[in-house]
Amino acid sequence: MPLVYPQVPEVETCVLLFIPVELVPIVGGLLSQLEARKRWESAEDWEKGYKAFTSLQDQLMNSCLQTLIAEIRALRGVKPESEATPIEERTTDMYRSFNDIIDVLTPILLAMRGSEPIEDSIIEALRGTTPADETRNIVDQLI
After folding, report:
1. Contact, 55 vs 46, CB < 8 A?
2. Most buried among 11, 17, 78, 143, using CB within 10 Å?
3. Domain boundaries of the chain, sorted by first residue
4. Distance between CA atoms of 120 and 133, rounded to whole angstroms?
5. Phi and psi at residue 95, in whole multiples of 5°?
């Protein structure tokens, strides 16, 4: 039975899928079968499916390293003196250290216990961009 590419939701989301390393070649091979035009109902479905599944294979083979690096750097936050440097030219030392994050995280954890006010966005708080006394909204989101 030919496949029909599903409707993309208005708000795109994704899931994190853990694949045992020994199964990576098998899963990659199975995904490659979905590149064939004969598997899809229409040329449009095939084009969308081909792009999606080759992208998945690429992520599977490079373990999403670039995405993970970008996310870690975003969490750490760039040092103020390096903000003008284009992202592609930044080096690791241009980002705040994890020790800086821990120094900011301790008061947040205390606030989550109810003893101190907390930021709206924990990421903004970790980056040091949101005052600690704005709201306790994050607690409501966590409960």
Report:
1. no
2. 78
3. 1-63, 98-142
4. 9
5. -105, 150
